[in-house]
Structure formats: C-alpha cells, structure tokens
Amino acid sequence: MLSCAYSDMKSGDRMDVSKIDAMLAQLRAGAAVASGKPVSGATTPGVRETNEGGRVDFSTVFKHSLDQVNNSQQNAAKLMQDFEIGAPGANLTEAMISMQKANISLQYTLQVRNKLVMAYQDIMNMPV
C-alpha cells in the first residue's frame, strides 16, 4: 500500500510529513504526561498538567483529552457539512479522514471510560 503512494508521486515530489511529525510529538507528550515525566518542548497553552506537588493532575489531563475528542468531532462534522452543501474548497478526502480520526478518538475515549468504571467497581467490591 505504501509503495503505491510512492509510485503515484512524480519524481522530485516530496511527501508532507509535518502533520505526522506533529501528531507523533503530541503522542509522545501525552505519554510523558501520563507517566508523570516532565514534558520537554512546548505544551498545549492553557493546560496545566501538574499540580503544586509536581504530580500530574488527572482531572485536567482527562478534561483536556475530552475537549480534544469534542473538537475533532465538531471539526469532522463541519468538514462533512461543507462538502455536502458544496462549499468551495471542500475536500471529500479530508472530510473522510477527519471523520475516521474522530471515530477512533471516540472509541478510544469509550475504552478509557470502560476501564475507569471497571477499576471503580473492582475497588468498591474489595472487602474492607
């Protein structure tokens, strides 16, 4: 599949990997925040990942994640609506990719919620 993408490119053309690099950096930063390590480089403005004790503030990280899922779903819905009404510059490929990203992020969020509920139930069922 990847070779097809390269064969479709003309000689001298280069793939734009800046978005992929940005996404990888964001994933690495999220993994560092989740593990409690200090984040090197720029962080998301307005998000305070650690509290006064230097620990990761779970509620802030979780809220930020939920906001990102919400934003991706709203962006995908807007792109699809623009394509449906025939807005100039609307791109089906971009809209479909955005929809898939929003779907994956929602599924991931549901899995995290299910794990949290399961952990809560396990703790509540422990004998005292």
TrEMBL record:
Keywords: Bacterial flagellum, Cell projection, Cilium, Flagellum. It is found in: Bacterial flagellum basal body. It holds the Pfam family FliE. It comes from the Bacteria. The keyword Iron does not apply. NCBIfam families: fliE. Belongs to the FliE family. This is Flagellar hook-basal body complex protein FliE.
